[in-house]
Amino acid sequence: MFMNKKGVSAVVTYVLLIVVAIGLSAIVFGFLQALIQEPEFTCPEGLALVIKDVDCTSTPTGQLYITFQNKGRFEIDGVYARYSNTPGAVSSTPLVPIRDSGNTGGINEITDGQKEKGFFYFGRSIPSPLRPNAEYTQLFRFTSTKLEKIEIQPFLNLEDDRELGICEEKVITRTISC
């Protein structure tokens, strides 16, 4: 009845070999998937913030006005602002938003708590997002004797309003001389 037992054991061997190969590939896939993480946040495609104007001539030394304009389709909650005193260097020193008794007024409480890190929320007394086609002018302080480059990154409050989504791919760089 069972004359060719070698044939049955060869089939079992191939089945076991395939099961082991699939199991190993699943383990490697799981390991690599945990190793390579996808970005948690990406900004919407229609988000576009521009630096409309930079004015450091009408301010005391170490201060500048930046006028932002939202040219996109989405509201922007704020910006992460930093500068460099060399055009080719990485901008890593925070631009600090400050209160202005002149034409732009004060800053809101959330900005007041985060300003030394370079985070600025749009809105005077309470945070309010910058709507599409709207402009906003803010006074910033810098600690260097000169300022050659500024970088701005827009951010959005995420769903639970406790985390910021910084737009890594939307860095705005402007070379200036202050």
Folded structure, characterized:
The N and C termini lie far apart (96 Å). 21% of the residues lie in helices and 29% in strands. The longest helix is centred in the N-terminal third of the chain and has 31 residues, at 5-35. β3 and β4 (93-94) form a beta hairpin. The strands form 2 sheets. Strands 3, 4, 6, 8, 9 and 10 form a 6-stranded antiparallel β-sheet that branches. The protein has a 4-stranded antiparallel β-sheet with strand order 1-2-7-5, with no helix packed on it. The chain folds into 2 domains: 1-37; 49-175. The chain is of the alpha+beta class and 178 residues long.
Keywords:
six-stranded antiparallel beta sheet, 178 residues, 29% strand, alpha+beta, elongated, four-stranded antiparallel beta sheet
Topology diagram in text:
Blueprint: H1 5-35, E1 49-55, E2 63-70, E3 78-84, E4 93-94, E5 96-97, H2 109-114, E6 119-121, E7 135-141, E8 149-157, E9 164-166, E10 172-175
Antiparallel strand pairs: 1-2, 2-7, 3-4, 3-6, 3-8, 5-7, 8-9, 8-10
Helix count? 2
Q: Write down the overall mean pLDDT.
A: 81
Helix content: 10-25%
How many domains in all?
A: 2
Q: Structural class of the secondary structure composition?
A: alpha+beta
First-residue to last-residue Cα separation = 96 Å
Give a quick account of the main beta sheet: strands, pairing sense, barrel closure.
6 strands, antiparallel
Binned strand content: 25-35%
Low-confidence stretches: none
Number of strands: 10
Instruction: Give me the strand/helix succession.
Output: HEEEEEHEEEEE
Radius of gyration: 27 Å
Task: Give the overall shape, derived from the CA principal axes.
Answer: elongated
